[in-house]
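User: Show me sequence and structure for the first protein, then do the same for the second.

Assistant: Starting with the first protein.
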Amino acid sequence: MDLVAETERIATREDLANFVAALAAAAASSEVDEWENNNLPRFLDGLSGWLHGMEGYFINQGLNGPEQPSWKLVGEMLAAATLYE
C-alpha cells in the first residue's frame, strides 16, 4: 500500500476510517516489514516524534501549518508514524 497516495484520497471522516482500516490490514500482513516502525510502541513513538516536528515538515514543504487539522492531515500523521524516527 502506498501510504502517501492513500492519504491524498482522505477528505472525510469516513475516508479516514477506511484509511485506518487499510493501515490495520497492512500492519497485520507482511507489508508491515516495510515499515520502519513496525510494532505498536515504535509506531506510537514515531507518531509522537512527527507531531513534535510537524512544524518543520510544513516549513520544509514551503507551507503554512494549518490552524485546525483536517481528516487528511490526521491520515498523513498516521502514515508518517510508520517511518518517522
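Switching to the second protein now.
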Amino acid sequence: MNAVLGIAGFLAFLTFGIAQLVAGFVGIEHGMGAGWAWGALIAALMFRFTLPITIGSFFGAMNVWGWHWALAALFAAPGLAFVIPGVLASTFALVKR
C-alpha cells in the first residue's frame, strides 16, 4: 500500500511540474515571444533557474488560460498557501504581545 501511495504521489508531483513548465512556456511565449520562452525553459532545466518559469506560469494561467489571479498565484507558487498564513500569524502574535 505504501508503494502505491508513493508512486501516486510521485506521478502527481511530476504532472504538476510538467503543467507548471507548460504554463510557464505558454505565458512567456504569449508575452515575450517563443525565443524567450525557449530560453527560460532551457534555463530552468539546465541551470535550475526557475524564476522566469514561475512568473511565466502565473501569467500563462492568468492571461492565456483565463484563471483568476489568486488561483494563478497558488498554481505558480503553491508555497504561498503556507507562507502567507504563517506570516500573518507571527504578525498577529507580535501585535498581541
